Amino acid sequence: MKLKKMMVITAACSMALSITACGANGNGNNGGNTAATNAPAENTGTDNAGTNSGNAVTSEGVVPEEGATLTVWESKEERAFTEAIAKQFTEKYNVPVKIEELAPPDQVTKLTQDGPSGLAADVVVIPHDNLGKAASASLLLPNDLFAEETKTRNTEASIIGSSYEGELYGYPRAAETVALFYNKTLVKEAPKSFDDVLAFSKTFTDKSKNRYGIMWEVGNMYFNYPFIASDGGYLFGDNGTNKDDIGLASEGAIKGLQTFVKLKEALPIKSGDINPDIKRSLFISGDVAMDITGPWELGAYKEALGESLGIAPIPTIDGKTSITFSGIKIYGVNSYTQYPNAAKMYADFATTKEAQLLLNKTIGSVPTNKEALEDPQIKSDPYVSAFAQQATNSQPMPSIPEMGNVWSPVNAALPEIWDNNADPKAAMDKAVQQIKDLNNGASQ
């Protein structure tokens, strides 16, 4: 699941596998919850706790409603994890869990359609930049019963990504960002800075031989966010929530884009001549030494390069740590669920340290749980630990609806800068005005 490609994020998300679309499995019934009403569930906390005899009680005193059963939507690729964690949950709380396959990017749309009729899953898995759409439509219950535990356990970026308009809705379970892939037979040591990248490329890049020191999608804002954000630029102010504060043409953003321009020396080709297939082919053949990309390429690159594959954080920009986009994959609880306590308990149970380590072992994801990130299982994996390290220096993609208005203007500005030597300030000023116009048009 490429965050940009879906206009979502991935940003989090499975770190070793891309998330591909898959159809819903079965007839869409809500795990036998045929009595579900067409009114959102009340946020009554422990007051509506059932009396399921034999059901263990959490430390907060929350128990599942009597007779509770749950349906969870999950991607085909990550179903193995959900089967394992659901089995553990059922064994502990005596609540049966049914799994229906549905790609996370499709879940908010289906929840919009099926939530009010009682046919949607009780617990959904969504990329965090879909959160604003779901929360603003009152499709999700806030994460209230386990809010403090969730905030304490997880990274700040994942909490921001799980919140909308200051309220915590999600239960973060995995993070996604980009990193620097490199061929160890060509690059003996991962470059620490983009100055190092340029120095190496002067000895390697040869356009006549279609050989380049580094390659990435230079016309795609998702991959170029470090050049915008690392010296203080940003998309929307107030942690991505203020649509009227756009920082794409700020002093820091323009300074970073000057480094972006310098890198044309390492990659002297047009933006339109770079796409994932071309880049992948050149990297696997050894004609590209370094590639800025995400975990969706990990499988193919490991198979092709084996021990020669290295992954490292994005090099620094003008001495500043590179800030990338992150996507957070989160659980959400359907506001129309018949069993809100049980659903919230499941979402919490499936995002603990132990659960996130199981997800990593099963799928290869990067945890958001801070203790899991420090666990030897993560630290000893050179690939996952590199993504985890970069994820700590990332910003969640904004989840407000106006985020959808950003991509086209910026993805037009970047090629103007790269291909046509447009002034970065003028190009980004134009993009900002276009975004504002779109925002104003959408609100009218």
From TrEMBL:
InterPro entries: Maltose/Cyclodextrin-bd, SBP. Residues 34-46 have a biased composition (Low complexity). One of its GO terms (cellular component) is ATP-binding cassette (ABC) transporter complex, substrate-binding subunit-containing. One of its GO terms (biological process) is maltose transport. GO terms for molecular function: carbohydrate transmembrane transporter activity; maltose binding. Belongs to the bacterial solute-binding protein 1 family. CDD domains: PBP2_Maltose_binding_like. It is found in: Cell membrane. The keyword Plastid does not apply. Its main location: membrane. Residues 47-58 have a biased composition (Polar residues). It holds the Pfam family SBP_bac_8. It comes from Paenibacillus albidus. Keywords: Cell membrane, Lipoprotein, Membrane, Signal, Sugar transport, Transport. SUPFAM superfamilies: Periplasmic binding protein-like II. It is a lipid-anchor. Residues 1-23 form the signal peptide. It comes from the Bacteria. This is Maltodextrin-binding protein. Residues 34-59 are annotated as: Disordered.
